[in-house]
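Dock 6-O-phosphono-beta-D-glucopyranose; give full complex structure.
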Amino acid sequence: MTRTTAGNPGPPTTVILFGATGDLARRKLLPGMLHLMRTELLPELRIVGTSLEDHDRESFIDFARKAIEEFAPDVTDGQWDDFAKKLWFAPGGSVDALKRTVAEAEAECTESQTRLHYLSVPPKAALSVIEMLRDADLAKGSRIIMEKPFGTDLVSAKALNAAVHKVFREEQIFRIDHFLGKEAALNILALRFANGLFEPIWNRHMISNVQIDIPETLGLEGRAAFYEGTGAYRDMVVTHLFQVLAFIAMEPPTALDPHAITEEKNKVFRSMLAIRPENVVRGQYVGYRDGEGVDPESETETFIALKCFVDNWRWAGVPFYLRTGKKLAEGQRIISVGFREPPKSMFPEGSGIGQHGPDHLTFDLADKAKMSLSFYGKRPGPGFRLDKQSMQFSVDETSWAGSVLEAYERLILDAVKGNHTLFTTADGVERLWEISQPLLDDQPPVRPYAAGSWGPNQIHQLIAPRAWRLPFERRWRDKNAT
Ligand code: BG6
């Protein structure tokens, strides 16, 4: 579907993209920035790509063209031509070349403009890029987006924050977590705080458990160098899954503004109990160690499932089960809020009551966001048989389906406009590493699992006597299905 976003355009902008020939740039950032340009959300946009790979302007434009053909196939020739003219390349590692190329790109625009550095680089490369920006005198007055994971533990996160703060003020820094830019994640805030219906039931009295389950079918996709030193916990949990957890668990913010939202999210992180190794299952898919660039004795986890707790008045005692991993049976991104079962039932055994778990509210964080409330209802016909039924909402079935902004598009636009609401702060990130430290200090063994499975068998013990919602017993309804 052609997307037709309209909204307030951002100011003229030059993005300096570090890691410009990496996987993220190819899949999301270059197609996303083209989208912002063609929908006039960022009509005046220039991009200076830089990377350690051997490229010049021409070969970078060629790289971008292939990325667009693959990930934004509906782009017209005219739109591509306009975009290609806005691409520059500076070879990585040279302060002079970077400075010169940025000056050349910026000289194309006579109006005042925003300069945005996007660091799509692994954590260990972040510091040298920051120093390069200082040496090239490109930091002053600019903004910087930093990719996760922000550090690899508490000590390194603190050191990185301190080093970044020597060059950039906190207001200039945008620590990105793209899950917070997903329409479906934002809809959690709308559902919770724009309606009176949910607040009274949003607590430990009514909710028995929460599952945040993000299995992926993807493998490493050529990212072994990054993934070997990162693993599923640092790549996904301490970043995306905890951020999403905060949206589910936070108290009502006083306003839709950066300070209020951040404060409530950070309160959730402060209330979280440290992650205990005995509540964690780590896994590695069979065959991972044979992959190119992977240590044959690697202990990196490609799968993780864990139980954690937010120990405050609203959530004390309610387990949050988190799971994610590579090469699993299905690609899904769901949050499932499980409600307590009724204390007594007039329905006899065999009627179907409770047979499919408790009633649930489910958010699907897929690009085509969905939501579903499932409950027991009467199966039509004689007798009184109960069955699980559901009310479902899908953005795709509404007239706004074409307006959905991809998460990176939204967050780049927010950063250009200086809006910090959906970005993480130094405090928040450090607190998440702090609660992670007991796990990082004493990692349970990695257990093998077959590619295409749901992870090692121990995941069932972790959640017993409950069960994982995935795989779903029933599919989401699809209006386009025949
Ligand atoms: C990235 C991780 O941040 O998120 C990847 O580094 C993961 O390993 C990806 O595949 C998942 O994001 P999405 O939006 O595709 O679900």
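Observed: The first helix runs from residue 23 to 38.
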